[in-house]
Structures are given as structure tokens and as C-alpha cells.
Amino acid sequence: MKLIKNTLLLFFMLSASLLMAQVKFEAKVSKQKLGVNERLRVDFEMNQDGDNFNPPDFANFVVVGGPNQSVSNSWINGVRSFKKVYSYFLAPKSRGTFTIGQASIVVDRETYKTIPIKIEVTAAVDIPKDPNNPDYIASENVHLVAEISKTNPYLNEAITVVYKLYVSPNVAVDNWNEIDSPRFNDFWSQNIDTQGQKVQNGTFKGEEYRFLVLRKVVLYPQKTGKLNIEPLSLDIALRVPTNRRDIFGSPLMTRASKVVSAGNQTINVKPLPEEGKPADFTGAVGDFNFEVSTSKKELDATESFQLKVGVRGNGNLKLFKLPKVTLPSSLEVYEPEHTENVRTNLAGMQGDISDNYTVVPQYKGKYPLPSISFSYFDLKTETYKRLNSEEIIIDVLEGPVNSANGNPATTSAISKQPVVLNNSQFAFIKTDTTFFNMANSRFFKTNLFWSLLLLPFLLIPVAIFIRNKKASREADVYGNRIRKADKLAKKYLGHAKKSLGKKEAFYIALEKALHNYLKAKLHIETSDLSKDKIQELLTEKQVELDVIKDFNSILQNCELARYTPIDIVTMQDDYEKAAKTISLIDKQAR
């Protein structure tokens, strides 16, 4: 009987251990049907710790939070229970039926994948107006607004967009992250510096609010018709009041997060009128002054002067061309130097632009510089205006006469004079000489003579040594590949270092550096750069497991950076970790 009990106990223990050894990796969603204005939580849960977690691409959703990682260990009746969860918070982009793709994880060199999940996104649903719901309180007390100066501008007319975050005094904002920045594809755009902006008091929909100006942008539309201004979206962490009170009677606060968006804005861009449009119009829109000036009006031939064609005023100064000059053929004109002295503020571009020509007259005479015209569209009167410069006379005082333009009578009146010979025509030949002793200026057998004689023989061993070192270096094929890999890695790491603070550019450069280093180090192609293959080859090269894990974790960070907000401190850590890991692989690989 005792033997049977022991057998049964052993059987249950083995069964429990087998159940614990079975890997479970599954995806769970908070709901499979939601409105387009709701958020979806997706959890990827595993019962054993794994490596190389790869999430799906969430093509039809915007990742507004995550990945958040949580790990729990528990012991119940001597049995260990482990759970690790990666959580994402998603906002649907549009209505429809979509699929959450497969995520993958590697446990003990085996790859496990989740089952795809279908999600139905319906029209917007009414959010319950529960005064005790933190999400509802947050939605009612935080607003992001885009204020547009003009919604029906002309083509190339400046408009401004000011993004303001309004926060009710009832809530407190801890921090926020931009999750979607607008791209002004159909506009010339210029951001205005908003550093040092202070929180101000104001009203929103008739109620008292605090607000902060987050961004100011000046836009010049480059197309006509209806143009879309994409929204700015923020993920805000804040504290909202609850219906509970502390011992002093003050309401207790609870944490909440809220995604706010300024919403899509549409402007209708009017084309410039065709009626009255000058033939030489090049797209200038605004209020301008036109000037043509020269640095000199009197000079000699082959001297140069500067001809300046300039426009000053308020308008799209960087978006049109200045008129070209046409000068007489006797004036040699060089390509102009274009200069811009333009500042941009909420009123648009202001300042001046100019083309500076260098002109060199070739012949004596007076040369008129004809009047030059400049046309622009005046926004105040909504009409075209033309400005003309005054004619300028350039007087070349001294120099050769251009026979093609000269007076033939004057030219023919000049007679040839006979050449008169005289007896002193060879007077320039010197007949008296002065001699001096060369004995004191000998070069033969001096120190300089022997040095120049022996120097080639002394350089022969040096040349042989340098040639042997070069031949040895060229014969070291493997060493050359390592040096090439180091040089390439440093090159891309240099690009990554220059891109610190720009998430996407930084992680693309970092990933290129790691891949190109491995291609040269392990002699593999890009198509073979899987995580399993990398781990296998580095293990064969006797690289330590910790170093391999660090390398794979950096690659994973490069992949996850597309979905997660990253600050510059994390980028700096990843850069230093990448440099250290490449160095360790170089030292350990055999």
C-alpha cells in the first residue's frame, strides 16, 4: 500500500513538472469590438522567460502606449509560477475589421508564436459620463487646440498654426510625450522657437483654464485647393480628483493617462488671379520694395563694379526668383552671388534678398544699364503691382576704344609715323664687367655635398622596411576584413552619434552599424542575419553568452524603437552599449 502511495505521489510530481515545463505564449486583448474613439489593450503573456520578443506591426493602429513589461514570480505549495507580460495600448486609425498579427519569442532556442486575433472597429461610441471615471474626468479637463490664423489664404500667403494645451485647474499634468507630429507635406514650413514659454491663464469655452503654447508654425501653401493640416497628438500623464477625501477634507488624486489630439484641420487655398498677371511674374506674394544699385558709376576699363538687384519687405522671400539683368555686350558679367537676410516670425518672412553681379567693362565709353522691372501680388489690394528701377549710366573714363562702336572718321585720321633710327640703338648692351673670386664659394666636398650624396643610400633600408610592412598588411586578408569592419562600424556609429535626439535616424544608423560589422566579422550576407544564426555563429567564435545577449538586446531596441517613445538618455545608453559590445566581440572572437 505504501509503495502504491509513493508511486502515485511520484506520478503527480512528474506530471506537475511536465506541465510547468510546457511553454505557453499567448495574446490577450481587452475587447474584440470597440469604437474608433476607444483604446485597445493587447497583452502578450508567457509562462517562461524568453529572448528576442518581436511584436506584430500594428499596421491599422497607432501605438499610444507601451510596451510596458511586467514580471511576476510566485511560490504556491512549493511550486513556482512565472509570468511575463508585454502590454501595448492601441488607438484604431479607422473603422473596419483588422487582425492583430503574430508575436514571437525564443525560449531555449525554440521560437513560439501567438495566434492572430480579429478586432472589429465600429463608429465612435458615446463615452459614459461617469464623474467618478478618471478617463472621463481627464477628457473633460484637458484639451489640445490648433489655432489657424486664416483658413482661406492665397497661394504662397503666410498662415500661422499655434498649438495650445488647455488644462483645467482641477487636474495636474505630470508630463507628456508627442506620439504623432504633423507633417506639412503641401506647405513650406518654419517652426518658431517656443522655448521659455510660461503657463498662462485664459478661458476655454467660457471656463477658466491654464494653457501653454506648445508649438508655433508658419506655413506657406504650395498648392491650391483643399489642403489637410495633420493633427498633433500627445499622450499625457496626469492626476485627477476622486470622490474620496483625506483627513483634511481635500480630494484624493488618482493617476490617469489621456491621448489628446488637435484634430485634422482643412484650409482652402485660393489660386492667384489670372487677370492682370504680368508676364515676368515669378510668384512673389506680399508687400515689397525693389532696388537696383551699383557700387561705382565712373571707373576705368578692366576695373570692376558691383551691380546689386534686391527686394526688401514682408512675404515669401525665399520662394521666388529675382529678375535677371541684361547688359551691353561690352560689359563682362559674372554669375551673381545670392544672399538672403530673412527672419521668420508669426507675421511671416521679413527681410531682404539680393543678387550681386560683378561687372567688368572692356572698353572706354558710356554704357546705359536699362531699367529692370519686378512684379508681385499685393495681398492688401489683391492686385498685381510692378516696380521699375531707374536707368543707370556707367562712365568708363580710360581704356581701349571699341573700334566696332567707335567713329570711323576718327579712326582713319590717325596716320602711321615712320620709325627713326639713331646711333644709340645698342646702348643697352653693357660692355664693362666686374669679376670676383669663386674660391670661397666651393660646393664640392662640403657637408651639404656629402649629405646629398649619401642620403639616397640611407633611405634604401627605410623604403625596404615600409614595402615589407605594406606587403605583410596586404597579405593579412582576415586582418584587413577586421579593420574594414571596425572602420565601417565606426562610420555608422558616427552617423548614429550625430543623430542623437532624432529617434528614427539614430536607430537606423545604429542598426546599420551592427549589421555591417557582423557581415564583415562573420562573413555572412544580409539574408542570413537572423537572431538564431547570429547567436550560433558568435557562439562558435567563442564569444561569451552575456556579450551575445547584449548584442541581441541592442538589435531588439532598434526594432522596438519604432513603437515606443525614446528619450535621449536611452539613446546615449544604447550607443555606448553598442560601442562596448563591438569591442568585446572583437577581443573574444577566435
From TrEMBL:
Keywords: Membrane, Signal, Transmembrane, Transmembrane helix. It comes from the Bacteria. Coiled coil: none annotated. The keyword Cell wall biogenesis/degradation does not apply. Residues 1-21 form the signal peptide. The chain crosses the membrane at residues 448-466. This is BatD protein. It comes from Siansivirga zeaxanthinifaciens CC-SAMT-1. The lineage of its organism: Bacteria, Pseudomonadati, Bacteroidota, Flavobacteriia, Flavobacteriales.
